[in-house]
Amino acid sequence: MDLGPGTRALVTGASRGIGRALAEALAARGATVGLAARSAGELRALAAALPGERHVLRCDVADAASVRDAVEAFAAAAGGLDLVVANAGITHYGPFREQPLEQAEQMTRVNWLGTLYTVHFALPHLLAASRGHLVVVSSGAALRSFPGAAVYGATKAAQRMFAEALRHELAGTGVSLTTVFPGEIATSLHDHERDRMPAWYHGGDDAAQPAELAAKILDGVESDARSVVHPPLVRLLGALHNLNPRASDALLRRLRGTTAAPRRD
Ligand SMILES: NC(=O)c1ccc[n+]([C@@H]2O[C@H](COP(=O)([O-])OP(=O)(O)OC[C@H]3O[C@@H](n4cnc5c(N)ncnc54)[C@H](OP(=O)(O)O)[C@@H]3O)[C@@H](O)[C@H]2O)c1
User: Fold this and answer.
1) Angle 264-160-46 (CA atoms, 0-180°, nearest 5)?
2) Poorest-confidence range of 196-205, 235-244, 254-263?
3) Which of 24, 70, 105, 174 is 20 to 30 Å apart from 2, CA to CA?
4) Are 88 and 12 in contact (CB under 8 A)?
5) Would you say 161 and 181 are in contact if contact means Cβ atoms under 8 Å apart?
6) At what angle do helices 64-78 and 114-129 cross, to 10 degrees?
7) Residue 19 in this model has a pLDDT that exceeds 80
């Protein structure tokens, strides 16, 4: 699918980070952009800074009715839907045995159910038009999860398996799907927990910029890529992990230290 003037794109989690970078990249190409998130003030400020037609959609992806309303409002205002990006997500890192159940439930609602709701309410619009594209922003943690990210990784793996099956189910419909597996990207994702991130986490200066990832995602949509993986080392780690988990653990120990893969059996 070609992205440009005439493309009607809805992005969840558009107020910051990867979603904001995607909204900026889409607006720069002349697309009509639906900006969905909870922070209406940040969305309004972004909408004011973007060129072209943009719609602020206050939406909590953990709430099915809120997602339905945002999708329907955008489709009505823009006259349809072409591209839908299920990107909104949160983290709570830490050892599972110390993690409050509420945090695990919240990640499950936002990351996994939020994706499910977004696709559920958007897909009928795309199928009715026999064209369009879905993007599911998962994580490198869905390819090889990390100590401290047991529940986060599980929610990202749920997105991955959902998207993998759905891409095949959509064959021949005119609608397609790309899954995104980011590594460490410089966003506000961990701002609330920076002081207690595990030792294996680099973040900071080592993290890739959201605009780089956004450009790769738009390329991936236009080339109908099955997946977009950035930085590229994440792909190598995922492939190696599938073939030989011990070898990927050894690689991680070299790259990130023993806290990334403490067991050797
Ligand atoms: N940054 C990384 O290193 C990295 C790595 C792998 C995967 N990812 C994935 O990339 C996606 C985007 O994350 P990011 O790094 O850009 O993080 P971010 O800067 O914290 O942005 C997260 C976005 O999600 C929105 N959001 C959170 N909860 C929401 C809810 N209940 N309803 C609607 N929107 C909600 C936030 O907006 P409001 O707070 O205004 O609602 C914000 O716009 C996530 O799915 C994340 O898991 C990120």
Assistant:
1) 115
2) 196-205
3) 70
4) yes
5) no
6) 30
7) yes
Q: Give, rounded to a whole angstrom, the gap between the first and last alpha carbons of the chain.
A: 46
The span from the CA of 113 to the CA of 105, in Å, is: 10
> Measured between alpha carbons, how far is 9 from 30 in angstroms, rounded to an integer?
11
Q: ω into residue 5 within 30 of 0, thus cis?
A: no
Residues labelled as active-site residues: 152
* Residue 213 Cβ contacting ligand 1 at under 6 Å: no
Structural contact between residues 19 and 13, judged by C-beta atoms closer than 8 angstroms? yes
Q: Tell me if 180 CB under 6 Å of ligand 1.
A: no
Q: Which atom of ligand 1 is nearest to the CA of 12?
A: 34
- Enumerate the H helices of 35-183 as residue ranges: 40-49, 64-78, 101-107, 114-129, 150-169
pLDDT tens digits for range 218-231? 999 999 999 999 99
> pTM score, two decimals?
0.99
Give the number of other CB atoms < 10 A from CB of residue 149: 22
**β-strand pairing of 8-12 with 32-37:** parallel
Count of C-beta atoms within a 10 Å radius of residue 183: 21
193 C-beta closer than 6 A to ligand 1: no
Structure tokens at 18: 């990867």
Residue nearest to atom 36 of ligand 1 (CA): 13
